[in-house]
Design a protein that fits this description.
The complex is a heterodimer of chains A (252) and B (250). By secondary structure, chain A is α/β, with parallel strands linked by helices. Chain A has 7 helices and 9 strands; from the N terminus they run βββαββαααβαβαββα. The chains are: A alpha/beta (252), B mainly alpha (250). Chain B: One of its GO terms (biological process) is cellular response to sulfur starvation.
Chain lengths: 252, 250
């Protein structure tokens, strides 16, 4: 692998002391290549989301190191898309997308221009003037993706971003994400508990088992895109991953 | 249809109220000097206007009202924000707040007069004290109740300082709660206006006391209705402003 954009070594994270000590992640190593779509799967509570939070600086690890090799001119190396879109309800769609650009030195006009381009990328140009409460769940999540892309991050961190959506909308957004990553070449770190989702969008799937969370298995998926969900090879890989996950949870 | 019906009922109710009010003194059930019939009110109102007293009293009261409201609300919002954001500040002030909060605004009248004299600033002070607590608690509670997930969004996009947290998230998110407090304060401040002016600061309250000592009860009623009208006006304007500020809500 060329120099990874994210290099996580011996990462540990624990809460509390003594008896009530809760080890969420233990001695986890993970490297993500530039431009790679890496999907992390695992059951609830194995520290998948915690891993993203550590990368984002929202949680502090108790041991190990995290190195991010972003472009030197990159102001915000990483941007996050949360499970619940978390739009700011008092801002119109366009101003939500422009949120992360405030303080970047861009003028208001430039920020809006950039926000408009991002809305076009996620196919929501017509909704720029709406309030968040006027959007559907899927639209909200697209706005959240546009907001994250607007700051031109090197890495997009996505924490179960489609899990609250109905399956029809979810599949639409998975396709959309594949198109966007192909167009922008972004590195994506995507957390999900949905194996079909993982194999559809991933270049590489990493299974985290626990607790405490450790890497249990890893599969590279070199199939061309756009991928058909009924593709036999894809379903084969999904079956293997499922077997791996249930074997791991049986061991624990 | 429903609207017409309820409007008609409301008008009928008001009419019945006025008829009853008119009848009681006219039939000699109560001395008209103690309860002036409503038909005498317009004439009394015109007299007050012609004398130029009405406008002077209203303007003077309004200036106390607006100044007291701004001072009390401004201090209440500022300290409420700090107290809502900082557990340390809240703990530090907890007992002082417990000590001062139960003291009614009117209990400050002696000090208001000692500190400011029988001057407009005394009325402003009394009004501001009453408004302060309402707005302070509303603001503190609203800031405390802001969704932590939204604060995290600001952090995730690099806005990590307390000032940025305040401007980007806490203040806009707390606005609905702060506005509820302000609207309550709007009514509370009116009560304080009369109370403060009864002690002699020129304004509507003072004029009412003068009139009642001369048993000109029709004039007292003129000012009672004036205050009802002004309060209605302010409250409607505030509700309109509130609706516009919170147009982002479903």
């Amino acid at each position: 692998m060329p120099e990874p954009i994210i290099d996580i070594r011996a990462l540990s994270l624990a809460y509390g002391e003594g008896e009530s000590r809760n080890v969420v992640l233990e001695s986890l190593d993970l490297a993500v290549a530039r431009g790679e779509v890496l999907v992390i799967v695992g059951e609830s509570g194995v520290g998948k989301s915690t891993l993203l939070r550590v990368l984002m600086g929202l949680s502090r690890p108790s041991g190990g190191s995290v190195a991010v090799h972003a472009r030197p001119d990159c102001r915000t190396p990483m941007a996050m898309v949360f499970q619940d879109a978390r739009l700011l309800p008092w801002r119109r769609v366009i101003d939500n997308v422009a949120f992360g650009l405030e303080g970047s030195g861009l003028s208001r006009g430039q920020r809006r221009e950039r926000a408009r381009a991002m809305l076009a990328l996620v196919g929501l140009s017509d909704l720029a003037g709406r309030w968040p409460h006027q959007l559907s769940g899927g639209q909200r999540q697209r706005v959240a993706i546009a907001r994250a892309l607007a700051v031109e991050p090197d890495v997009l961190l996505m924490d179960e971003p489609f899990s609250a959506l109905d399956s029809f909308t979810r599949e639409g957004l998975q396709d959309e994400l594949q198109r966007i990553t192909a167009e922008t070449g972004k590195t994506v770190l995507f957390v999900t508990h949905d194996i079909d989702e993982a194999v559809t969008i991933a270049d590489r799937v990493v299974v985290i088992a626990g607790p405490p969370g450790r890497i249990a298995a890893e599969v590279r998926i070199d199939l061309p895109r756009p991928r058909l969900r009924r593709d036999a090879t894809l379903q084969d890989i999904a079956r293997q991953l499922r077997a791996e996950l249930s074997r791991r949870s049986a061991e624990l | 249809m429903q609207l017409i019906r309820s409007t008609a009922l409301a008008a009928a109710g008001l009419l019945a109220f006025l008829v009853l009010w008119e009848a009681v003194p006219r039939l000699g059930l109560v001395n008209p000097a103690f309860l002036p019939p409503p038909s005498t009110i317009p004439a009394a109102f015109l007299r007050e206007i012609e004398l130029g007293v009405w406008l002077t009293a209203v303007l003077s009261s309004l200036s106390h009202y607006v100044a007291g409201l701004c001072a009390g609300a401004g201090a209440g919002i500022a300290l409420g924000l700090v107290s809502g954001m900082s557990r340390g500040f809240e703990a530090f002030t907890a007992w002082v707040v417990r000590l001062l909060r139960p003291i009614p605004g009117l209990a400050w009248v002696p000090f208001a007069i000692i500190w400011f004299g029988v001057e407009p600033s005394a009325a402003v002070f009394i009004i501001a004290v009453g408004v302060f607590w309402i707005v302070f608690f509303a603001t503190q509670g609203a800031v405390r109740g802001v969704d932590r997930d939204l604060v995290e969004v600001a952090q995730a996009f690099g806005f990590r300082g307390p000032l940025q947290r305040l401007v980007k998230i806490l203040l806009p998110a707390a606005t609905p709660g702060i506005l509820v407090g302000l609207r309550t304060a709007l009514g509370q401040a009116w009560m304080a206006v009369v109370a403060a002016e009864i002690f002699g600061v020129p304004g509507v309250g003072q004029r009412m006391m003068q009139a009642s000592s001369l048993l000109s009860t029709d004039i007292v009623v003129v000012y009672m209705l004036t205050m009802a009208g002004l309060y209605g006006l302010f409250d409607s304007a505030f509700v309109a402003l509130q609706g516009w500020l919170l147009r982002w809500r479903a």
